[in-house]
Amino acid sequence: AQSVTQLGSHVSVSEGALVLLRCNYSSSVPPYLFWYVQYPNQGLQLLLKYTTGATLVKGINGFEAEFKKSETSFHLTKPSAHMSDAAEYFCAVTQTGANNLFFGTGTRLTVIP
Amino acid sequence: ETGVTQSPTHLIKTRGQQVTLRCSSQSGHNTVSWYQQALGQGPQFIFQYYREEENGRGNFPPRFSGLQFPNYSSELNVNALELDDSALYLCASSLARTGAKDTQYFGPGTRLTVL
């Protein structure tokens, strides 16, 4: 069975500070991993995804994530937070042969001016 | 290129009623998935349609049903509404050439409130 755990339902950072959102997954086979962002009253927008190859994945808006198999983690980072980064972030996992994403419960990011 | 659209934006129903939610896929996409997002939770998979056939289903009862049309638009129908059905319903489309690792593009959702 696949699952995702997002540590910290709420994270607050100062504008310009490092953003680190944590995601750990469980999967019995090589996973495909995704980060999505959801702004208020909107749907989900893909930030980045890992399927195969390079374990450091760069996404939109300056975000990146590193797939660490030994730690079963796929943490999302951004060197310098902007006010516009305030949103809900979801980590998701799937695998070959599956047809759906398994989402974590989300982390709400607040950026303090 | 038109993105995924959903209608209506908001809907209020009472217990026991039936509801139909609609989704138009992104241009060129032949696969549609529906997710339920309860307040404060991550989206949960309801089912997926590929070329008008159901192609997988999550842990939802049969009163949740769907359709996909030849133009790849889709409907989600929920019968005998319950209070716990109150949620944001998200539609996502993808081009299933590569399967699971394909990006799913989400619509803005329909907010359903059951009173």
Write up this protein:
Chain A is mainly β and 113 residues long. Chain A has strands at 3-5, 10-14, 19-21, 24-26, 31-38, 44-50, 56-58, 64-68, 73-78, 87-95, 102-103, 107-112. In chain A, strands 2, 5, 6, 10, 11 and 12 form a six-stranded mixed sheet that branches. In chain A, strands 3-9-8-7 form a four-stranded antiparallel sheet, with no helix packed on it. In chain A, strands 1-4 form a two-stranded antiparallel ribbon. The mean pLDDT of chain A is 94. Chain B has strands at 5-7, 10-13, 19-24, 31-37, 44-50, 53-57, 64-68, 74-78, 87-94, 105-106, 110-114. In chain B, strand 5 (44-50) and strand 6 (53-57) form a beta hairpin. The relative contact order of chain B is 0.32. Chains A and B meet through strand 5, strand 6, strand 10 and strand 11 of A and strand 5 and strand 10 of B.
User: What's the alpha carbon Rg of chain B, rounded to whole Å?
Assistant: 13 Å
Query: Compute the gyration radius of chain A: what is it?
Result: 13 Å
Structural class of chain A: mainly beta
- What percent strand of chain B? over 45%
Largest β sheet strand count, sense and barrel closure of chain B: 7 strands, mixed
The averaged pLDDT of chain A comes out at 94
Rough outline of chain B? globular
SS-based structural class of chain B? mainly beta
User: What's the mean pLDDT score of chain B?
Assistant: 92
Query: What portion of residues of chain B is helical?
Result: under 10%
**End-to-end separation of chain B:** 37 Å
Reported for the largest beta sheet of chain A, the result is: 6 strands, mixed
**Oligomeric status:** heterodimer
Order of helices and strands of chain A: EEEEEEEEEEEE
The DSSP helix count of chain A reads 0
Question: What is the H/E string of chain B?
Answer: EEEEEEEEEEE
Overall shape of chain A: globular
Low-pLDDT parts of chain B are none
Flag low-confidence runs of chain A.
none
Please give the count of helices of chain B: 0
